Amino acid sequence: MFGAISTSLQRLLHMDNPLYVILQFIWDLLVFLVKATYFTAETIYYSLLPNYLRKMKNVSGQVVLITGGGGGVGRLLALNFAKQNARVVVWDINPEAIKTTMDLLARNGYTCKGYVVDISDRDQVYERAAQTINEIVKAFLPQMMQNNRGHIVTVGSVTGMLGTYGCSDYSATKFACVGFHESLLTDLKTHGYDGIHMTLICPYYINTGMFSGVRPRMFPMLHPQYVADRILEAIQKNEVWCVLPHTIRVLTPLKCLLPAKVCWELMSRVIRGPESMMMFQGRGRVPAG
């Protein structure tokens, strides 16, 4: 999908001409420092600028595919995007949940397409993707690349940045989500697809019943509507990385900056993460209603 490295780039990565490589490195470092200063100032500016003064992305008429849109945050996202006049497509493994989402949108005067899809079934994913393309999307990544336009949103988790007690399997899948997202972002930007935006969403515990029984010490569980609203806002702002709540974002780099034993004391004694997860009662099937 992406091209091989060019001869000019190979010259930069090998010491065939040491002087050229060193001078190019110095130049790249200077350019980096200038851009880093500008981008940092830009981030501070936009962080302080109220939303009503910002130019937000218009998603009206755009196709929005929501996997897991039959319940929880996915259902609220479907309604949020429908209110923005987007063309909403919902995938879920639960047909009753899909119907409930479609009924919710209908009661609010909106419509959406819904398909039963088990995203662990590769053949089914491609079958439904083709069906969706034929009806309204006519996209997905190759078409996005052809048009240099689109927006890919990956819903990860804080457990995909920090290992969590009792969540080895779940945490592993979320780490995979984060790695996939960041690698794809690197591929697209390296090959000049700057028109394809990518947003990584990493929320804290969400009060949808998924972590039933868990009682966090430091931060309360997030309300699903808040998460859905922030995801929509992040997309409209073209945010690259959205951690919910924002205060958690300050903590995540500490695992690389602090000594390992200090990190463990912070997690186990101050945050009491393992103890809060010990109250986890398990998750049943997400209700359709």
TrEMBL record:
It comes from Bactrocera latifrons (Malaysian fruit fly). Gene3D superfamilies: NAD(P)-binding Rossmann-like Domain. The chain crosses the membrane at residues 20-39, 59-78. InterPro entries: NAD(P)-bd_dom_sf, SDR_fam. Pfam families: adh_short. Keywords: Membrane, Transmembrane, Transmembrane helix. This is Epidermal retinol dehydrogenase 2. GO terms for cellular component: lipid droplet. GO terms for molecular function: oxidoreductase activity, acting on the CH-OH group of donors, NAD or NADP as acceptor.
